[in-house]
Amino acid sequence: MKITPATSQRLVVAVLWLIAAITLFILLFIIAYIFVHGLGNVTCSFILESPRRMGRQGGILPMIVGTVYVAALAVLIAAPVGVLTTIFLTEYTREGKLTSFIRFGADCLAGIPSIIFGLFGFVFFVIVLGMGFSIISGALTLALMVLPTIIRTSEEAIRAVPQAYREVSYGLGSTQWQMVTRVVLKSALPGICTGIVLSIGRCVSETAAVMLTAGSALRMPCSPFESSRTLSLHFYILAREGISMENAYATASLLILAILGINVIAYLLMRRFVAKVT
Amino acid sequence: MKQDKIIHAALTLIALSAISGLALIAIFVFKEGLPIILRVGAKDFFLSGQWYPREGKFGILPMIVGSLAVTAGAIIIGGVLGLGCAVVLTQFAPRRLVVVLKPAIELLAGIPSVVYGFIGVVVLVPIIRQHLGGPGLSILTASIVLGIMILPTVTSISVDVIRSVPRSYREGSIALGATGWQTTHMVILKAAKPGIAAAFILGMGRAIGETMAVIMVAGNAMELPHSILDPVRTLTSNIALEMGYAAGDHRQALFATGVTLFVIIMVLNTIALTMSRRSAGKGG
Questions:
Q1: Which residue of B has its CA nearest to A150?
Q2: What distance in Å separates residue B19's CA from the closest CA in chain A?
Q3: Which residues of A touch B160 (CB under 8 A)?
Q4: Which of A230, A239, B129, B156 is spaced 20 to 30 Å from B111 by Cα?
Q5: Does B242 map to a domain?
């Protein structure tokens, strides 16, 4: 039997819709499964207490603080470096050997697995620089890891700023640096922030790299030079060592809630950016 | 004028941070890992299946095979689903579906890998154990979990590549009387081929580099697998599982495992980058 083009069209469209449906189903299933098993255990005391008996009982406040600490520090380090790199690439130089060299570096860095970042952070920050297992070691490692994301998203944002803005700014007598900071960065800001917010998400969900650099201490971190266990690592340890399934589900629920929130913020920022430049 | 020069110099210096980060990573990982490969001998290190750190035997062949096996499985599953989603998003979906599917795929990319691994353990492993046999922790399970995890990578790059195919190609094909599917696979996917290949290779890089999810679902057995229902240990899980207590030669051997992984990833990345550059040149 010969299949006519019209039949194959219908068949393929059906298969493709099925694929899209499967993808949506997987996402909803993961979120629903975690929430159904875990959201009920997320209570005020769970969020506000310290863990007892290795996490079997009690809450996860130190991990929440540790996660915020690591992610915030990482982004505070990576964002200025990433945005300034982008300004150099887009405003201060012509396309040439140097820019393609820098882009090659960023692209390669983006492809390196987190466990390699972990190995590097372990020997460089933890041992050679003597920072030990600490929040700062973890943050520096993660900063390097999210740097390419920040460079790529800021580059897209800065390139989307219309050329006319720059010309008008020069026309009004501004220097290049004034033009970049007051006109280009200002218009590109929501787009740049999208990249930064998504990077926070990556830091929050990262496990392998922080395991080898920030360590897994359970106590409340007081300074960036202390070890701290992040939420995702805590979840991994709870689930893998079978310490407490209830607390594992509850921790996973909080992680998913955080990622949902971060994605919504990124989405809203992106919409604002698109509305601003077009 | 002077101020501008200072700013230019400072920016140049900062812009080199990404490349110097990459160089530092390469230097330190190789410095820690390379000596032991040379001492054990490349042949024994890469082609022996005996990993007994206490006796000083470091052979990572089963891990290399394990990594390749789960990656191959992942790219089949993630490739089909990911490319399918990309084609739906760019060619067939009405706007209302696009505004749901696109953020959904971005969200899928944001879910922590430990959560994927966990769902794999509590949902997928029992299903596979009951219906297909074996321990449940297997190449197949890891492939499915990794396939879903790399789907967003494959989709987002493929969408960009397909979007960059000139509109006139599509219009010309439709005007010649081709159906939407004929246009898609004969014209658009053909023009986008190098870019889609790059998307698949980057997806492979993601899969081979994934750690936590694989540890949870692949079983971590140190033997050469005979079927897709056998448990395996990957290069990444080997590092993450033993790094906590390793010292001396053992730790160096784990860094050497990292060196192996690093080289594989750099090769994959370079291939993908050249391919996507070629594709960009062609699509113009």
A1: B18
A2: 5
A3: none
A4: B129
A5: yes
Least confident range of A183-187, B183-187, B273-277? B273-277
Lowest mean pLDDT among B18-27, B100-109, B247-256, B268-277: B268-277
Domain membership flag for residue B12: no
Please answer yes or no on whether A115 and B112 come within 8 Å at the CB atom: no
Helices (H), chain A: 5-38, 44-48, 61-91, 97-111, 114-121, 135-159, 163-171, 176-178, 185-205, 208-213, 231-240, 245-277
Q: How far is B226 from chain A (nearest CA, A)?
A: 26
Chain A residues within 8 A of B29 when measuring between CB atoms:
116, 119-120, 123
In the block, which residue shows the tokens 């960065």?
A185
A228 with A217: CB under 8 angstroms? yes
Position B284 pLDDT exceeds 80: no
Instruction: Give CA separation, A64 vs A231, B24, B112, in Å.
Output: 6, 31, 15
Which residues in chain B touch residue A208, judged by CB atoms under 8 angstroms apart?
Answer: 113, 211-212, 236, 240
Q: Provide the domain count of chain B.
A: 1
Q: What percent of chain B has pLDDT over 90?
A: 74
Task: State the smallest CA–CA distance between residue A98 and chain B in angstroms.
Answer: 9
Query: Which of A271-275, B149-153, B208-212 shows the lowest per-residue confidence on average (mean pLDDT)?
Result: A271-275
| pLDDT > 70 fraction of chain B, expressed in percent and rounded | 98
Picking from B118, B182, B184, B273 by the largest number of A CB atoms within 10 A of its own CB, the best residue to mutate is: B118
Domain encompassing residue B45: 37-50+58-283
User: How many CB atoms are closer than 10 A to CB A262?
Assistant: 22
Minimal C-alpha gap between B208 and chain A (Å): 8
Average pLDDT of the segment spanning A177-203:
92
Q: What are phi and psi of B146, to 5 degrees?
A: -65, -40
Lowest mean pLDDT among A194-198, B20-24, B133-137: B133-137
Contacts of A85 in chain B (CB under 8 A): 11, 14-15, 17-18
CB contact at 8 A, A89 and A99: yes
First to last CA, chain B: 38
Q: Which residues of A touch B211 (CB under 8 A)?
A: 113-115, 207-208
CATH of residue B218's domain is: 1.10.3720.10
**pLDDT of res. B283:** 46
Predicted confidence (pLDDT) at residue A73 exceeds the cutoff of 60? yes
- Region A124-152: what's the mean pLDDT? 95
B273 vs B126, residue with greater confidence: B126
